[in-house]
Structures are given as C-alpha cells and as structure tokens.
Amino acid sequence: MGWTVIKDGRRACITCCESKALSDFYSYRYTTTQGKSSRRYDSRCRDCARARRLARFYRDHSRALAVSQEWKKRNAEHVKAYAAAYRALPESRKAHNFHQRIRQAKSRASGEYSQQDIDDLMAKQRGKCAACRKSVRKTFHVDHILAIANGGANDKHNLQILCPYCNCSKQDKDAIKWAQENGRLL
Ligand SMILES: [Zn+2]
Ligand SMILES: [Zn+2]
Hints:
By secondary structure, this protein is α+β, with helices and mostly antiparallel strands. The chain has six helices and six strands, in the order E-E-E-E-H-H-H-H-H-E-E-H. The protein has two domains: about 80 residues, no CATH class; about 70 residues, 3-Layer(aba) Sandwich (His-Me finger endonuclease fold), CATH 3.40.1800. The longest helix is centred in the middle third of the chain and has 19 residues. It is globular. Bound molecules: zinc ion (ZN) (2 copies).
C-alpha cells in the first residue's frame, strides 16, 4: 500500500488525483505495536471512497440494484428533483467544468493511441512504473509526459505508464509549479 505525500495539510487523492485538504479524507486513529498513536488519512478522498464503496455495493448486490432501479422508475419525479438539486450545488458545477475542460483539451490534442501502444509501452517498461520502478501490472495510470492541458500530444510518443501514486504526486507537483508560474503561490 502506498501513499501520496501530505504537504501543507493537503494530499493528492489516489483515485481522482486532485489535491485536497486532509479534512476531505476519511481518517482513523492508528496505534503502533509500541503503543504510539497517530492519525492516518485514507489515500482516497471522501468522494472517491464513497464512489468506490457504491461501485462495490452495486457489483455485489445486483438484485439490490434492480430493486433500486425499480424504485427509481416508480419515483421518477423524486429522482429528477434530486438530480436537479445536485446539479445546483456549486461543487457539482466545479466537477462538471473540470471534466469538461479535460474532455475539450483531449479532443483538441493531436494524435491518438491504441491498446497495442499501451501493451508495447508496458513491455518496454518491463511492467514497471517509469518513475519509481514499482510493478504496474495490477493498476496503472497512462500519463501524458507533457500534459495535454499544456499542449502535449495525445500520441504514444508522449505517453508513459506510472503507478497511481507517482501519477498523482506528479499532478500535484505540476499543479504547484503551474500556480507558481502564474504568480499565485508565494
Ligand atoms: Zn478523489
Ligand atoms: Zn511509481
């Protein structure tokens, strides 16, 4: 189990890679065998932890899902109102805009890559993270070496495979560098 770095009370979520305040992560008290106790923070933000729990729930409870879909059908008005209320939240606006920007940047970027390119890359990297050399056979992120948002291409020459931890800390660093370059930090 790896963790992203906690810096200035913030950590990058291992799933969505967004840098978030520690209060956005579930935490628990942890006591070492020596009896020292400290607080540990989950590596996924609350939103992602919740989404993951839900995904697992739906996978394991397809019957429950069918029941809930049945309920939703019968209560369509309620569901519609709930969705509208969610969309009205400033957080949902922000999330929507964030993903919208990524989608737009992706469609603007030149080039494309295939599953074969990823397989080749995996072989070239011998199944290891390009940054820390840990195995990425189980989970990995495909990273754009030069971020698409910064004009990077979406083809195989601009790709590397990173483990989730390195990918998230890279994004963390870029975000800080970016902010500094724009004179917003320090
Ligand atoms: Zn997250
Ligand atoms: Zn790594």
